[in-house]
Amino acid sequence: MIPFEYVRATDVADAVAAGGAPGAAYLAAGTNLLDLMKGGVSRPTRLVDITRLPGLAAVERRDDGSVRIGALVRNSDLAHDPAFARTYPAVAEALLSGASAQLRNAATAAGNVMQRTRCPYFTDTGSACNKREPGSGCDARGGETRLHAVLGWSEACIATHPSDFCVPLVALDAVVEIAGPAGTRSVPLDAFHRLPGDAPERETVLEPGELVTVLVLPPEAARFSGHSRYLKVRDRTSYAFAVVSAAASLRLDGGRIAEARLALGGVALKPWRAREAEAVLAGRAPDEAAFRAAADAALAGARPSGDNAFKIELARRLVVRAFQRAAAGTPERLPALPGSAFAPASEAAHV
Amino acid sequence: MSETAPRTRHGSSIGQPLTRRDGILKVTGGARYAADHHPPGMLYAVMAVSRIARGRVTHLDVAAAESHPGVVAVMTPQNKPALAQHPDEKHDGFTFRLDLLQDDRVRYANQPVAVVIAETLEAATEGAALLDPAYEVETPAVGLDAAREFTPPAIGVGDPADMETGDVAAGLAAAAKTIEATYETPAQYHNAMEPHAVVATWDGDRLDLDMPSQGLAMAQGRIAGLFGIAPSDIHIRSPFLGGGFGSKGMIAGPQVLGIMAARLVGRPVKLVMSRPQMFGPVGHRAPTRQTLRLGAAEDGALTALDHHTLTATSTFDDFIEPSGGVSHTLYAAPALATRHRAVRLDTGTPLFMRAPGEASGSAALEAAIDEMAEACGMDPLEFRLRNYAETEPASGKPFSSKALRACYARGAEAFGWGKRPLAPGQMRNADGLLVGWGVGTATFPALMFQAEARAVLKASGEASVAIGAIDMGQGAWTALAQIAADELGLDIDAVDFRIGTSDLPNGGIAGGSAHTATAGTAIKGAAADAIAQLAGLATQDPRSPLYGAGNAGVIARGGRLVRRDDESRSEAFTEILGRAGKESVEGKGSAGPDAAREHYAMHAHGAVFAEVTVDPDLGQIRATRLVGAFAAGRIINPRLVRSQYYGGMIWGVSFALHEQAVMDPRTGRPMNANLAEYHVPVNADVPSLEAILVEEEDPHVNPLGIKGVGEIGVTGSAGAIVNAIWHATGKRVRTLPVTLDKLL
Amino acid sequence: MSVDIVLTVNGTRRTIPIPDPRTTLLDLLREGLHLTGAKKGCDRGQCGACTVLVDGRRINSCLALAVSLDGAEVLTIEGLAEGDHLHPVQEAFIAHDGFQCGFCTPGQIMSAVGLIREAQAGNDPERVREAMSGNLCRCGAYAGITEAVLEAQGAMSQHTIRDSATRQGEAA
Asked: Where is the FAD-binding PCMH-type domain (chain A) (predicted)?
């Protein structure tokens, strides 16, 4: 990696001031950033260490029922926070299905949101990549595309967003709080990551120097605690990125679906909220026919970007299964294999 | 053959499940691997490797690298130290061409193109990045269809490409049932957890190396040739390897580059490969496309077996994956043919990788046998027993020993095979997931290589045994010491046992599952020689209670020589030596293949039973249970042997479900050259393993009766898993690995 | 621009100059402090061979910048045994043959120690397997590793676990 200036920020204002310089990047755990720097993908000339910023390492519950996840809360701490996991089980399950225990111990909440694609043509500096080098082209097109996007992609970029955590968060209408040179602002997570379009190098709505400080789950997000699951299909039983994943949440009322939430992972350059599917489910009985209809709606706009047509049908089936699991009820304890197809149904039984 | 449990004791040490003698070092961080060394004044070397698979390097920004703070030197084709031999010179089948900056040609992706040497690892790493090579790119040949087929002059380490016995065409024509199926296996990379490394220190023309090597004398010889120095002036320490699996059998180009870098700068240099760099210059298992044609009579007896392999080698050297070999051994087909063809691709040269040939060949053969059993409407185990080979089909030779029937029986019993429904798609678990059971036969040849050993008995009562043997995880530190102790008649703790450095007697190569047999036999010979000398002293000395017994009339036990015909008469080693006024006696031993190989087919065998669970909708697969029963002659240490079987079986899981190098079809570059996307199994992938050690005595294979256990576990396992997937789903997936998309 | 940081490494508090901010904790341990137990298998958080405990938590030391860990307490494999007295996890790895080549072993053991401290897996082998899945073993010693973790955890009462954590802390 190239030499860089190391700056340790003491508060948010300090960080934002230092982080606005050209070539600056924020360093939290570094589990993604250092990986990218070692590969020559990211070459920041200044690292602003935000690990010591006060007040950002806590999970705070507000009286209105919302919860505020500090940017520096470690993935494992959040997943193992009993109150949090009980209220937002799909979020906990998604966190624990991601990476490894070591990485979850280090990686932060905001870092997870900020992580960048695993597209091999992005991480390999020998390949053309519009995201890494605007205008250079996309070598993924016509290359190895088994795991690439089937929703929301463009000719310029067919990469996917790798996060598990973001999938249930976007389903639950999470909001990103951002601090910047011009003060603070809030952006819905669904609007935080950008689809590639013509400018895949612009991955989020963050402006130079802006810093994610808090992730907020609104009060309504807590209503799904009894019927929320995350399900992640992957190429090995653990320690693998999603081929496709789904976060499914239901609010049931009198045997009917009062409200449904659905988001997909591994299908697009952002965690993919499927509102059409949610609309299909409203008012229906939570049965397979309804879930199939929802799955069809969720994938209606999908098209392969290469040798990955299978992901569309796989995503449909996954949506059905995720909703079936959600309908069966959140398990008392997360399964031994979180988010896994092999999580025993006995552990997933309705409480 | 006996079906009873193996004896736990063959001698005082042999047969006992001792824990590893290097265990404490390994659990405390005290075991020092090559890259753990820091001689004074050491610099760091980092390779720059090619982004393209074929073409020329037209420019390196040496100035940029040199101006990076801390960079000491940049080694390129222009300034590399002169070599005494061209790296492309070949001397024998075990010499492989190396890329040592001989010119600007690029012949595969990740080929070294320069080396940056710096005061710190960080500076060397960035210096290498700053070289930013420019290329003249040529279109690479990628994939088995990209180049013209040829018939290789030899496969593996020198076997003929084609073999036929009986009339295959007639056998197929006469068959009641026939099948033809084509299986594909991908390129796989060894990926030992320890990347190849070297710490090199020159002192004039003497060379001191910390370097993982599966074969010290061969490495010495190759380095000596390249640098024009005497092998005896090269000292290699390799007491621990962080895994080898064949990739450290020959010295690798990058290790030589580290030595060259040290020569260039005149200071000690450490060069450690990065993980992505491991996908190129240090060998791999070549991809294969295997077509099997089988015929069987109404009763399920095979009438013919035809096994055609297409594989790949590099454009500049030959290693041909000998996939057909397993078909020579396993099933009693009266007509049998194997052929190997190859194409030349722009990759690094393939190399032996754990069960080279047997792993890929077994995966295809065992799947085809399963398909044939299905065509015959037979249980796949029953079908295998129907075609049990009483003599080796290809050679007609009797087996030196073969307890495969016992393996089938013991494995089936432990697994519960009898409850298996014949038809696929019949079993589900409590959660509605599909469950399938499959079986595969395991086999691996019992080889012997060359080795020498030394055993010294001292008047002080101490003994030392030395051999340049290698422990890459299989347990040589322990198992060979057990052999040494028993053959010397001493407690294992009384033997100072040394391996792993090049100044010891040539221990041969740790490979081919033959190291315990080979090194053990050499140790046995050295010990016997020392004991014979001691016996000579005692039995010819009237003052000894053993006087007149004759050398053959005494045995060594508990530090004493004891008369065979009268165990009350014995004498301690120390007394014998003391009275003779000798400080010590030194015995020498050697090992190598003997004439019995002319008369017998020598193979270990086994049966692997696999259960898979498959999500019927999502296609995700888990190998939920594996039971392997193996017969491999004499077992020196059942604890370590069981671990070897487990490891092999997990490689089978990996072969069936996980591993594959994904090459970009346009550039020939591996696009998953890392351990996040080049999947090998994680702990959660192998929830249940059982290995059964089936007793087998082999009077012919070698003086110790050892057949070797390091590779056989890979064979059989992949086929068993693929067959279990069929049994779960009704789908025959013939392109490995079986990823979930292939089941949707 | 050399920066001094303070680290407590295996119970010893020390001031360590970091002349190059690019240095990771793994490279500092291995090349700077010559604590070579932690291994570099991938350098990218994909294999777990570099696992150490930082402030009592297992992490991949290859993906942590040393300079950012100023003030932290680091426990490596070299600091686990007390003299000749092996830690229960170390004992169990030997007893269950939870390794072959030994290269991934320091990472496996530190990961197991971290896992036991996390107290999330209980005595469920499936949870242990999942929690140990961040440590690749190419030799395939997983069966022994899982057995070793369960046995060591059983041998260490919660009291012992806390006690040893505290001791490590106090030794600072």
From this structure: 1-222
Does B265 share its domain with B306? no
pLDDT tens per residue across span A255-283? 999 999 999 999 999 999 999 999 999 99
B424: β partners: none
Write down the pLDDT at residue A350.
36
Q: Quick one: residue C56, left, alpha or beta (phi over 0 = left, psi -120 to 50 = alpha)?
A: left
Let me know whether B644 and B726 are in one domain: yes
Q: What CATH number does the domain containing B460 carry?
A: 3.30.365.10
The total number of structural domains in chain B stands at 3
User: Are residues A266 and B715 in contact, defined by beta-carbon separation less than 8 angstroms?
Assistant: no
Nearest by CB: B243 against C34, C42, C101: C101
The answer as to whether B153 is a domain residue is no
Position A337 in a domain: no
Domain count, chain A: 2
What ipTM was reported for this prediction? 0.97
pLDDT of residue C171: 41
- Residue B457 included in any domain: yes
Whether residues C60 and A102 touch (CB distance < 8 A) is answered with yes
Q: Name the domain boundary from B246, B272, B298.
A: B272
Q: Is A43 on the interface with B (CB under 8 A)?
A: no
Domain check: are B302 and B424 in the same one?
Answer: yes
- Vertex B318, ends B315 and B324: CA angle to 5°? 120
How distant is the alpha carbon of residue B556 from its chain centre?
34
Nearest C-alpha in C relative to A344: C126
Read off the pLDDT band of C168 (50, 70, 90): very low
Give B468's contacts (C-beta < 8 A, 6+ positions apart).
B216, B217, B499, B500, B501, B502, B503, B504, B505, B506, B507
Which residue in this structure is represented by tokens 């680091």?
C74
Q: Provide, as residue numbers in chain B, all residues whose Cβ is less than 8 Å from the Cβ of C81.
A: 28
Q: Give the residue ranges of chain B where pLDDT is below 70.
A: 1-11
pLDDT at B521: 98
Kindly state whether residue A20 falls inside one of the protein's structural domains: yes
* C28 backbone dihedrals φ, ψ, rounded to 5°: -60, -50
Position B375 in a domain: yes
Q: pLDDT band at A344, cuts 50/70/90?
A: confident
Angle, vertex CA C10, rays to CA C4 and CA C14, nearest 5: 25
B711 is catalytic: yes
In a domain, residue B26? The reply is no
Identify the sign of the CA torsion B248, B253, B256, B261: negative
Domain with B663, as residue range(s), is: 163-171+284-447+598-743
The pLDDT score that the predictor gives to residue B12 is: 84
Question: Which residue, B536, B558, B592, sits at the end of a domain?
Answer: B592
> Taking CB atoms and an 8 Å cutoff, what residues of chain C touch B689?
142-143
A152 falls within a domain: no
Q: What are the tens digits of pLDDT across the range B347-359?
A: 999 999 999 999 9
Q: Which residues of B704-738 are buried (b: 16+ CB within 10 A; e: fewer)?
A: bbbbbbbbbbbbbbbbbbbbbbbbbbebbbbebbb
> Which residue of B18, B19, B21, B26 to mutate against C (max C Cβ within 10 Å)?
B26
Residue A34, min C-alpha distance to chain C (Å): 6
**AA letter at B543:** R
| One domain for residues B105 and B53 | yes
- What single-letter amino acid sits at B627? V
pLDDT digits (tens, 9 = 90+) for B691-708: 999 999 999 999 999 999
Q: What is the pLDDT of residues B517-555, one digit of tens each?
A: 999 999 999 999 999 999 999 999 999 999 999 888 999
Q: Do the Cβ atoms of B669 and A121 come within 8 Å?
A: no
Q: Are B572 and B619 within one domain?
A: no
Q: Are residues B468 and B606 in the same domain?
A: no
pTM: 0.97
Report CB contact under 8 Å: A341, B615: yes
Q: Where do the domains of chain C lie, and which CATH numbers do they carry?
A: 3-79 (3.10.20.30), 88-158 (1.10.150.120)
